[in-house]
Write a structure and sequence with these properties.
Strand order of the largest sheet: 1-9-8-5-4-2-3
GO molecular function, one term: pyridoxal phosphate binding
Number of helices: 12
InterPro entries: DegT/StrS_aminotransferase (IPR000653), PyrdxlP-dep_Trfase (IPR015424), PyrdxlP-dep_Trfase_major (IPR015421), PyrdxlP-dep_Trfase_small (IPR015422)
Low-confidence stretches: 1-10
Distance between the termini: 28 Å
Largest sheet: 7 strands, mixed
Strand content: 5-15%
CATH superfamily of the largest domain: Type I PLP-dependent aspartate aminotransferase-like (Major domain)
Keywords: Aminotransferase, Pyridoxal phosphate, Transferase
Number of strands: 14
CATH architecture of the largest domain: 3-Layer(aba) Sandwich
Shape: globular
CATH class of the largest domain: Alpha Beta
Family: Belongs to the DegT/DnrJ/EryC1 family.
Oligomer: single chain
Number of domains: 2
Helix content: 25-40%
CATH topology of the largest domain: Aspartate Aminotransferase, domain 2
Organism: Rhizobium tubonense
Length: about 375
């Protein structure tokens, strides 16, 4: 799959003569999003205040092939509520990969439970199922599979562990819209899944998230928690049966989300086109590894990433300096969560600790031109030649 070659390949420059800035990401907003948002702002009040919210949830559930969806203010909020609905609390342990963003671990801490960080696989940079099994204790209450940068966790192995030890597998698919594991969409496989619609994501609402599940009782419990603890159908007005959360998405945000999910095929395909050009242009560099796509899977390639071989001598500081010199944004690879001040170090997670100093995320956005991709490629090549 190739990026259309008809795009103008002229290098744009600023007034000072330097190459124009290449951002690492930005959303694709069309007249459809603008029209829906305008309608929501104009008419989405009173009895119409949930119209776009309901339509977005239904469209997203249909796209994913799940029964239930709850739009939220963030993926973090969706994960927080879902874990709470599973009954996770003080004294419990939740296993997740050490290579992750803090948003995957924070809800565990907020619930009074302990995140248990295990190492990742060297090819997918996602959680290592063998390390998961070794970390299971009587206090383990869930396993979180975070599909990093669009890469997929080994859901077959994790689901088998979940069945063996009677543990729910939770999918943090914040970065994996468009990814599929053997015919099933990421986020639709585990006990529940969560998604992010941050402005950097393939589908965006500016800020926002989604909780999805096929488990009706888990859905009802999470729905109650999402509405300040008010049970659906409660006849008493302003009567919460429990202490819940306030993680709702607004109708205006949902209007943008609806327009985006109606374009999801286009948006994901474009991500894949951009990645394929990167991959083709970087082919032949034995010192570079990129996002994998194992047989039977589809990678949504949210964030094209290059990992340099340790013996290449390429380091993060070199990459950042090289990209900055060419006026290109590039994002550093996630630090191990256990290396952060809030947690105890798990230096034995050698893969997770070895990745960040020799990896970087490459720019990827819908209207990125062939020339812009090639400028990025030139920088990658320059650090190893």
């Amino acid at each position: 799959m190739a990026v259309a070659e008809s795009v103008d390949n002229t290098v744009n420059t600023t007034a000072s003569g330097t190459p124009s800035r290449i951002l690492y990401t930005k959303p694709s907003i069309t007249e459809r999003e603008i029209a829906y948002a305008t309608d929501a702002v104009t008419n989405g009040w009173g009895e119409n205040c949930y119209d776009y919210l309901n339509r977005f949830e239904a469209a997203f559930a249909s796209h994913l092939g799940v029964e239930y969806a709850i739009a939220t203010s963030s993926c973090t909020g969706a994960l927080h509520m879902g874990l709470a609905a599973l009954g996770i609390g003080p004294g419990d342990e939740v296993i997740l990969a050490d290579t992750n963003w803090i948003a995957s671990a924070a809800p565990i801490v907020h619930l009074g439970a302990k995140p248990v960080f295990v190492d990742v696989l060297s090819d997918s940079w996602c959680i290592d199922p063998a390390k998961v099994e070794a970390a299971i204790t009587p206090r383990t209450k869930a396993i979180i599979a975070v599909h990093l940068y669009g890469n997929l966790c080994d859901m077959t192995a994790l689901q088998a562990l979940g069945a063996q030890y009677q543990l729910p597998i939770v999918e943090d698919a914040a970065e994996a819209l468009g990814s599929e594991w053997h015919g099933r969409k990421a986020g639709a496989i585990g006990a529940f899944g969560t998604f992010s619609f941050h402005g950097t994501k393939t589908v965006t609402t500016g800020e926002g998230g989604m909780f999805v599940t096929n488990d009706q009782s888990l859905y009802e419990r999470t729905l109650t928690l999402s509405n300040h603890g008010r049970v659906r159908g409660q006849e008493k007005q302003f009567w919460p049966d429990d202490i819940g959360f306030k993680y709702k998405m607004s109708n205006v945000q949902a209007s943008i989300g609806l327009a985006q999910i109606e374009r999801v095929g286009e948006l994901v395909n474009r991500k894949r086109e951009i990645f394929e050009r990167y991959k083709r242009k970087l082919s032949g560099l034995s010192a570079v590894m990129m996002n994998p796509e194992p047989a039977g899977t589809v990678n949504g390639y949210w964030m094209p990433t290059v990992v340099f071989a340790a013996e290449s001598g390429v380091r993060r500081s070199m990459l950042q300096a090289a990209f900055a010199a060419e006026n290109i944004d590039a994002r550093v690879f996630f630090w191990p969560l256990s290396s952060l001040p809030s947690f105890e170090s798990v230096a034995s997670n050698i893969v997770a600790y070895g990745l960040p100093d020799r990896a970087i995320n490459l720019p990827s956005y819908h209207d990125m031109t062939c020339d812009e991709i090639d400028r990025v490629v030139e920088v990658v090549r320059s650090v190893i030649t």
